[in-house]
Amino acid sequence: MDAPATITGVWVTLEAISNLNAAEVAEVDARRQFVPEMGGPYVRRRLVGRFGPTMAIRDNKSGQIVGTLENDEMAGYPGVAVYIIYADPDRSRPGFAMEASGLYIPTLFERGADILHLEILSFNREMTHMLDRRHRPPDVRMRRHAYVAGHYWDLLIYGFDRADWEAFFNKFRVVLPGGPRAIAALGSGR
Fold it and tell me: How do 55-59 and 140-148 pair as beta strands?
C-alpha cells in the first residue's frame, strides 16, 4: 500500500517530508533538540521508515509546520513499529499531537506493524499523565536508563497491538474534532 502524500484532519494535515518542506522541517528539528522530553540532540532521520513515510505535522489554520512523525522497525524485532512524535511546544496546540497520532498510527498497522512501541522519559509529565489517566501503566520501566539534562531518568516503554491502540485512542475521541467536549479536557487552557 502506497502512502498518500498528505493525510488531512480537522486541525492538522500530515505531509510526507520532501524537498518541498525540508527547510521548514529543518527549522522545527533545530528547535527539537532543546526540548528535554525528546532526549537531546536530534540524529538525522530516514525519509521513509519500514512502515511508511516520515511526515510533517502542519497546522491547518496557520499553515505552519508544528511537528514531525516518524517510524521504523525495531532492530531485531520484526513487526514492531517504533513511533516518534515531536510537537513543538511553542507552535503546536492542545490536541494537535493526538489528532496527528490518530491519523498516522493506523497507517503503521495497515502497512504491517504488529506492535506499536513507545518510549517515554519519566519526566514527560504530559505523556505520563495522559497514559495514567487512561489506566495504561508502562509495560516496562527501565530505571535510570536515560541521561538527559544532567540527570538519569527512567525510560517507560509501552506496547500496543492494533486492538489495544484502538481501544486506547477511542477514549480520546470525545475531545477531538467531532467529539462532544472541548479540547481543554486534555489539560491545557491554551
Answer: unpaired
**The predicted structure's pLDDT at residue 42:** 65
* Number of compact structural domains in the chain: 1
Alpha-carbon gap, residue 183 to 147, rounded angstroms: 33
Which residue is associated with the grid cell 531518568? 153
Q: Residue 134: what pLDDT?
A: 85
Whole-number mean pLDDT of the chain?
A: 86
| Strands annotated E in 88-131 | 115-121
Q: Is the pLDDT of residue 65 over 50?
A: yes
Amino acid at 180: P
Per-residue pLDDT, averaged over 79-102, amounts to: 92
CA–CA gap between residue 1 and residue 138 (Å, rounded):
32
Rounded CA-CA distance 126/109 in Å is 25
> Taking the CA atoms of the chain, what radius of gyration do you get in angstroms?
16
Residues contacting 174, CB < 8 A, separation 6+: 180, 181, 185
Residue 1 is assigned to a structural domain of this protein: no
Domain that residue 110 falls in:
6-186
Answer with the residue of higher pLDDT: 73 or 131. 73
The CATH number of the domain holding residue 68 is 3.40.630.30
